[in-house]
Design goal:
Elements: E1 4-9, E2 13-19, E3 24-31, H1 37-51, E4 59-64, E5 67-68, E6 75-77, H2 89-97, E7 100-105, H3 106-117, H4 120-123, E8 127-130, E9 138-142, E10 145-147, H5 157-165, H6 179-190, H7 199-208, H8 212-235, E11 245-248, H9 259-263, E12 270-271, H10 281-287
Parallel strand pairs: 1-4, 4-7, 8-11, 11-12
Antiparallel strand pairs: 1-2, 2-3, 5-6, 8-9, 9-10
Length: 289
């Protein structure tokens, strides 16, 4: 039986799964504090070897919090691990383990893993993997193929979201316009004081408890997200009458999945939350790259 390993790398943790072609055979999670390429490679190799002890691994997939060039594996952008930019982590790990290693953005991997988990009817549908993170954007699975934007990025999430929401460009003074920018803008508009750094998770948690202002914020945020989804589908020439599966594939913030039913509530699309594999979703998808 062939086995592959899927590795999800975050700034503080490495999650590894051993995949036997049908299911997770083993799981392993370790903390790490690597701040150089050689140190990270050593941590990944040790984690894979520990997870796959006694089992021959035929290939490895890496899920990164980064934009990764789909052909070369070069890390193009990564604000969580900035010292990885320009590096080919996949080649460095491949040299150590002696097997083929592929790398992709964590959100793309999560989308791919969840798509493959679905039953045959759902897998036959065009699939949109949606995440608010910079390195995911929107990922489509069409005819069984994982599609990305240019140079491995998501499909223009930030530009479309800013345009659809009507929020001024200067609202995101400290970086790209993203979901957090929109939520902070709407929280100020609705008079909701944000206490935590992760404002999206905070507002979603309040909304789940039926906090009126938080619910209003998510409802208002959902409208531009719905417009964005429809715009991307039209760009790929998908008919608006087509059914397709929407996966909310953010591997880090499961609570934010609360937004997805709101985002597509006015559309004809089939909405379904991600989370088949929970926090292991990116590793599972990476194992099947």
């Amino acid at each position: 039986m062939q086995h592959t390993a899927g590795v999800h790398i975050t700034p503080k943790r490495i999650r590894v799964i051993l995949w036997d072609g049908r299911a997770i055979a083993q799981k392993h999670k370790v903390a790490h504090d690597a701040d150089t390429l050689p140190a990270l490679v050593e941590s990944i190799v040790a984690a894979v070897e520990s997870c796959a002890a006694g089992v021959e691994v035929d290939g490895v997939g890496l899920a990164l919090p980064a934009t990764v060039h789909p052909d070369t594996g070069v890390v193009l952008d990564c604000n969580k691990l900035p010292w990885l930019v320009g590096e080919r982590l996949n080649d460095a790990v491949s040299e150590r383990l002696g097997v083929v290693v592929r790398a992709d953005a964590e959100a793309h991997c999560a989308t791919w893993g969840d798509h493959l988990k679905r039953d045959a009817e759902d897998r036959a549908l065009p699939t949109l993997g949606f995440t608010p993170t910079l390195y995911g954007g929107a990922t489509f699975v069409l005819d069984g193929e994982l599609m990305r934007g240019d140079d491995g990025a998501g499909f223009g999430f930030h530009q479309l979201l800013q345009r659809a929401s009507g929020v001024p460009h200067d609202a995101a003074a400290d970086g790209p316009f993203d979901m957090a920018t929109l939520i902070r803008h709407l929280a100020k508009k609705h008079g909701l004081k944000i206490k935590k750094k992760n404002c999206v998770a905070e507002v979603c948690a309040k909304a789940e408890k039926e906090h009126a202002k938080a619910v209003a914020i998510l409802e208002e945020a959902g409208a531009p997200i719905g417009l964005m989804v429809r715009s991307m589908c039209r760009s790929l020439e998908l008919e608006e009458t087509d059914r397709f599966l929407v996966l909310y594939a953010d591997p880090c913030e499961e609570t934010v999945a609360f937004m997805m039913p709101i985002a597509v509530s006015a559309s004809v699309y089939l909405s379904q939350r991600s989370g088949c594999w929970g926090k292991w979703g990116s590793a599972v998808g990476a194992a099947q790259l």
